[in-house]
């Protein structure tokens, strides 16, 4: 199997309990995959295992991004090879401006990739352009990272970071949660603007609604730590009507 | 293997070698012949030091009086720090680089080895280098016990500013020294001030005449080089009526296994409408990760807002020293005077910090502001100890105190010990304190965005300190931010 992201038979535990139980998923370059599923099915765990969060331990199987074995890399090394996680609950860092954080992150990643760091002027040009395309003001760039941001502002800020860091693979972990319809549109437009033949997305969501704006190529249903069904966008519509009850039984079997 | 992976491997190798090597970038020893006093302390040593410096008899008498008082005093033990008993007879109380014997007449006569040392420290001692900089900074550098050169002296003299070594001030401006020396910190204020008053060797002297705004930053760098040498410098800054000065001191010492004592005294006098901004970036060797070696930093700093509307502001970034014991304070004597204290104190490994400030409100409508940021990592202990005291005549005195502590890891300690006493009913005193930890969530968030753990901690800590860093002169703020990162290396696993 060759894709940008290859996950084979992945098992993972958190605090001793098994959450992922033999999950396999292949995401080709340029594709958008949606992962849906009931609470507790392991969707967020998958995003943390792939991004290398401490305490989320892969016990079996493999996961690679662009040929790099993810499971042996530190979180920052995964970022260097192109992994980006848009957090469900973005963190606040008091006293560190949005701008400073972005510049530090971008230059850390560029360093990690063996590229030249950007100087202040180059960075300023880049950030202004990216922020403008997301309708974010200079004032917002000067505020401390996510401190006092509304839910919508935080999510928009995640998309801004993604736009600046230009990952190969972006995992959006319930990016739609807590967003009103306008914010949802802005965020989705930001994501869509980044779609291209080399970049892939894994969109984790409970609701079909987000997929009206970010149109997936594939939809997967996750239950009890595994992908239990896969299909095209029509699968999401079906789920919206029938719910997950069928899958919970299947996964138990 | 992809290119990115190869780059990562290279990065990892470099980082590992960075961490396993010595982190203290200033830990070199200079090979300079030194002219030293015999080991130990007695009246003869005090006379020896005074004679070495060709001091007038009044100053020798002053020193001897301090020595007599010191003999009757006990080392203070109330601070929350522990260290083996210091044997004051094992120390050397005077060490001058030998080539200084006749005193350099200009920078050209200074031992090139010394100048190279300062170059390594990043001090632009040579005037041309400073001139090439964005901004002018006049520097006085104190090496072990002797001041080795003051830049920009002539230019400062044009506007009447006196900036020179303490020794030069004694011989060239004895009347000013005599008037102010010990007027803020009395000889017998405490054990270490008595010791310093007896054996102080050199330091810096600043006088800003009435109405003059000092045209550049003034700066002193202190360095202890010789082993078993105590450094006892004396700094005296006087801002006459309506004058303004911004002063910065920086400190480093080589890495040595034995502890070295640093007991300095700093006195600031601000007269009517004068303002003194005093900033410190203290990066004395903190000892290694097992707590071996490092500087004992027992320093008394005090500013006197002697007349109405005077303003004194202390800003300190403390990252070094094995044990720190210092409380830069303000006496708000005049009416409408203002005292400020902005502090960042970082402790890592086995460092112990007991630091804070005293704001003594004596005059009417006096106000003070205290912002303290304590960061503890490793197995260190970090105490904020502060006193806000309002005397009965200090009508409408105001104080705002904010003490924030940040913990990194679970083996360090942070304590806040505020003493507040008000004997004026009209006083308004506010105290806020917080304690927080760098959360795993924050760290992971930063690492997901490409920051390695140390870079992440440095970023979060710099954010935590932002309110204080803003008060440093700009070029030093950048240096201080880097220092914050360096001093916390190895604090996360």
How would you explain this protein's 3D organization?
The complex is a heterodimer of chains A (253) and B (493). By secondary structure, chain A is α/β, with parallel strands linked by helices. In chain A, 40% of the residues lie in helices and 28% in strands. Chain A contains ten helices and twelve strands. In chain A, strand 1 (5-14) and strand 2 (17-27) form a beta hairpin. In chain A, helix 6 runs parallel beside helix 7. Chain A is globular. The model of chain A has no long low-confidence stretch (mean pLDDT 92). Chain B has 493 residues and is an alpha/beta fold. Helix content of chain B is 26%, strand content 33%. Chain B is built from 13 helices and 23 strands. Chain B has helices at 3-20, 43-52, 57-71, 112-120, 127-132, 153-158, 166-172, 174-180, 191-199, 440-448, 453-464, 466-469, 474-487; strands at residues 34-36, 95-97, 137-143, 146-150, 162-165, 204-208, 217-223, 234-239, 244-252, 259-262, 265-270, 275-282, 294-305, 311-318, 323-326, 329-332, 338-347, 352-361, 367-376, 381-390, 398-407, 413-422, 428-437. In chain B, the strands form three sheets. In chain B, strands 5, 6, 8, 10, 11, 13, 15, 16, 18, 20 and 22 form an eleven-stranded mixed β-sheet that branches. In chain B, a hairpin with a 2-residue loop joins strand 3 (137-143) and strand 4. In chain B, helix 3 (57-71) packs antiparallel against helix 9 (191-199). The radius of gyration of chain B is 22 Å and the shape is globular. The chains are: A alpha/beta (253), B alpha/beta (493). The interface between A and B is large, with 42 and 31 residues.
